[in-house]
Write a structure and sequence with these properties.
61 residues, mainly alpha, 2 helices, elongated
């Protein structure tokens, strides 16, 4: 499977994983609100950085 051209889809997966991590703390009470916020931001920042590094940029118009 070639992930080089799937930047938009990978960003969506990254956002969904961060959202699930946050909801697990806020709604599910699995961990504290501070940890939920930290996990969301950490997942979004690290995930977005990895997606940008590992995929090709979108074509210019």
């Amino acid at each position: 499977m070639d992930l080089k051209s799937k930047r938009r889809e990978l960003q969506a997966v990254n956002g969904a994983v961060g959202l699930v991590a946050g909801l697990g703390g806020y709604v599910g009470n699995l961990y504290s609100y501070a940890l939920a916020t930290f996990l969301m931001l950490a997942i979004w920042i690290v995930g977005a950085t990895l997606v940008n590094l590992l995929t090709d940029p979108p074509p210019k118009r």
